Amino acid sequence: MKTMMIRIHKILCTVICICFFSSCIQEDLPLCPPDLRIQFTYDNKDDISLFQLNAVKQAVLFVFNEQDSLVVSRTMNLQYNKYIATGLHLDSAKYRFVVWAFNPDTLYSIDPAEPQPGLNKADFRFLINRPSGGVFLSDDADVLPPCLFGTDTATIQGIANEQIKIPLELNKNRLKITVTGLQPTDEKYDFTIEDDKGKYTFDNGFERTNPFFYKKIAVPFTTVKSGGKDVSYLEAILDVLKLNETGAMNLKITSGKGITIYDEDLIALIKNNIIDAVDFKTTHYYDIVIDLSGEAVIVTVNGWTNQNETVELSD
């Protein structure tokens, strides 16, 4: 009987320890054993609300050594601006930390799917799995879920409860495109943005792939009263992946009859019309107004208009 009680006591102690240490992985408990704690930082509260970033629940963490070889990877629950116990115990050395934050079962994935220690960072890719036909239709609210990237280099001392911060950046933008100066009709228009950046490196650079498209189709004229007069315009809101000043995204607006009324490089359009230097890493919402009322097109981006910039109307 005594032997049985001792066995039961040992089993209970083991179960309690397992539960306690498991909870340490997810919670910042003061009595947890020493391990590395990470804080994922994102300070733009407007972005968090606009892009519903609190809905992103998963972060995949990769730890590379100074030779860029993978040491370990770990899937974690994502929380912003709070230290999270990782359960990792790293030797004293310098490491590169890379994190991708996205929800599972969305259009994003990581290649290789089951990373093995020793693989080089240059061999990893973050993939955008495009829908059939390569077209993201903006009428679908969930067509382009948010994804975030973060990286940092830190020297780990191997002491108890070390802490590091990894700043995250959003790889998604929202464009509100308004076209004014057209005579309103019953005709509807298509807004199309062409992209070819379907793979990202683990430095958040990109590799070109076959083109794919973001589309808002069959946009009608909207007419409102302004100053006692009717004012008509076209308006489309499109979500796109990361804007990059070294890349290109083409914006084309066509009528239902197939006539192109606007066809320009979106990146150049933004850079040429924002007087202050644009920071694509921190600016994720762009309000673009294209005025077609005159011989030259006047473009305003986030309230800025470059009066010296003229664009000829498309044929």
Percent helix, as a range, is 10-25%
Backbone structural class:
mainly beta
- CATH topology annotation of the largest domain: Immunoglobulin-like
Per CATH, the architecture of the largest domain is Sandwich
Distance between the termini: 95 Å
Q: From the alpha carbons, calculate the radius of gyration and give it in angstroms.
A: 25 Å
Low-confidence stretches: 13-31, 308-315
Oligomer: single chain
Number of domains: 2
Categorize the overall geometry. Answer: elongated
Mean pLDDT: 85
Approximate strand percentage: over 45%
Instruction: Write the H/E string, N to C.
Output: HEHEEEEEEEEEEEEEEEEHEEEE
How large is the count of helical segments?
3
CATH class division of the largest domain:
Mainly Beta
Biggest sheet architecture: 7 strands, mixed
Number of strands: 21
Order of neighbouring strands in the sheet with most strands: 3-2-5-9-10-1-4
What features would you highlight for this structure?
315 residues; mainly beta; Immunoglobulin-like; seven-stranded mixed sheet; 45% strand; disordered C terminus; cell outer membrane; FimB/Mfa2 family fimbrial subunit; membrane
